[in-house]
Amino acid sequence: MNFAPGAWKYALPPLLVAPFALIISVTASAVSLALGVATLAFFRDPDRTPPPTGAVSPADGTVSVLRTEGDRVRLGVFMNVWHVHVVRAPFDARVVDVEHVPGAYKPAFSKDSDRNERVHVSLEPTDDPEPAYEADGETATATAEVTFIAGAFARRIHPYVEEGEEIERGQRIGHIAFGSRVDVLFPSEVDPEDLAVEPGTKTTAGETVILEARAADLPFGVGAGEFDLEAEFEAETGAAADEPGDASEAADGSSASS
Fold it and tell me: DSSP string spanning 189-204?
């Protein structure tokens, strides 16, 4: 079992205290041992296998936020204490900026959590073949943003990536000690109806598809081998159109033989 960085820093003290706590009582030793084991469980970091296509969820948990902010869509995943707290990249990208913003420590599921301490990781999708739009006569590139949000109990945000780094879909990009919330702010070309999840959907980081769409329609690819929906539709309709012809030919053949 893999563990996120810092796991033993939190787990080792109660584990070391547990044997000596027997001097006090069996109960005290058991509580100390359970605390150490629970801490390791909080920091567990299992391997994940991204699906062939699709932008994947950055975190384990439940979709708690899905709203538009101007012309952009924000998706938020709330992590409870029993979820894996390692955050993963939703798609292939280049890290443009990593910004830490001080703030409060409200419960991550509350509306006030938008003012909590957080870390913004700005991403420039590497599958974008050309500039997505122009602003004030200058060419600009579509960017997305993954935000780590601290909660009432989770006050340690640990990004693993730095500006200029190339990351892959499903790659570990950080963790929040003891959970909280992770948001994805999509480029303006993404609409709410493009998303494959809704509020209340359970997600698994690096595996649950949150956005499945053709790269031609969006400012970034969603994994190798994107589905060509038009080709699939033409193939299906072409096959359907061939069926009546095949049936009539068969009927003509049987009539001729009779």
Answer: T--GGGBS--TT-EE-
- E strand residue ranges, 108-217: 118-125, 133-135, 138-140, 144-149, 157-159, 166-167, 172-176, 180-185, 202-203, 209-211
**172 falls in which pLDDT band (50, 70, 90)?**
very high
Nearest to 123 by CA among 194, 54, 186, 209: 186
- Residue 57: DSSP 8-state: P
Among all residues, which ones are annotated catalytic? Answer: 180
Write down the residue that tokens 């709203």 correspond to. Answer: 67
C-alpha separations of 236 from 179, 217, 243 in Å: 45, 21, 11
Q: Which residues contact 192 (CB under 8 A, 6 or more apart)?
A: 66, 68, 73
pLDDT of residue 205: 94
- Distance, CA of 190 to CA of 247 (rounded, Å): 44
Residue 240 has pLDDT above 80, yes or no: no
User: Do strands 133-135 and 138-140 pair parallel, antiparallel, or not at all (unpaired)?
Assistant: antiparallel
**How confident is the prediction for the chain on average, in pLDDT?**
77
Q: Which residues is 88 bridged to in the sheet?
A: 172
pLDDT band at residue 215 under the 50/70/90 scheme: very low
Q: Does residue 232 surpass a pLDDT of 60? A: no
Q: Are 38 and 185 in contact (CB under 8 A)?
A: no
CA distance 174 to 4: 9
Distance CA 12, CA 183 (A): 31
Q: Is the pTM of this model over 0.85?
A: no
pLDDT score, position 233: 37
Contacts of 238 (CB under 8 A, 6+ apart): none
For tokens 């069996």, the residue is: 26
